[in-house]
Design goal:
Elements lengths: L3 E5 L6 H12 L3 E3 H9 L3 H22 L7 E4 L10 H8 L1 E5 L3 H8 L13 H19 L4 E3 L6 H8 L2
Parallel strand pairs: 1-3, 1-4, 2-3, 4-5
């Protein structure tokens, strides 16, 4: 069977972790947009953000995902901001099965507090991070919620996703 499964959500939602498990279970390739862009550009996301700025980085991301239309099966973990630019969410919905991994602010903050590989939160303390997550989700959630399926934290597991894709 061929599947294109696109996992969206805020940084720290578990897209990469769940995506790897799902790709293994389905025996299809796993693609993490951030990791692939880092490989292609031979630079970290932090370096790319610093050198290009967010606007040019978002163009780089969009160009990368447009190439996925040539690939028949994959599980894709998107960068947290990727669905929010250049009609990418519309593109994802046309490309495959989109799933929003909805996660509480508290869990997101716990997971990403000390992660220095995320340029938008670098150097933030817990309070600043909480404020950033709250304001960012206000902007981004309208894009995430355009996913075909929305899974709450209790549903962030392989069985829930397999149930969705086998409908």
């Amino acid at each position: 069977m061929s599947f294109r499964i696109i996992l969206v959500g805020f940084m720290g939602a578990g897209k990469t972790t769940l995506g790897k498990q799902l790709s293994e279970k389905l025996s299809i390739p796993f693609i993490d947009t951030d990791q692939e862009i880092e490989k292609k550009m031979d630079k970290t996301i932090v370096q790319l953000f610093e050198e290009l700025g967010e606007s040019k980085f978002r163009i780089l991301e969009s160009d990368f995902i447009r190439e996925l239309s040539k690939t028949s099966s994959f599980v894709l973990a998107t960068g947290g901001g990727l669905p929010c630019f250049f009609y990418n969410m519309l593109f994802f919905n046309e490309l495959g099965i989109t799933i929003y991994l909805k996660t509480s602010n508290e869990i997101l903050a716990d997971r990403i507090l000390n992660d220095n590989n995320r340029p938008l939160i670098k150097g933030k303390n817990r309070e600043e991070l909480n404020d950033f997550i709250t304001s960012s989700l206000l902007e981004r959630e309208c894009f995430y919620e355009k996913s075909r399926f929305i899974l709450n934290e209790s549903q962030h597991n392989i069985d829930s996703i397999l149930q969705i894709i086998n409908q």
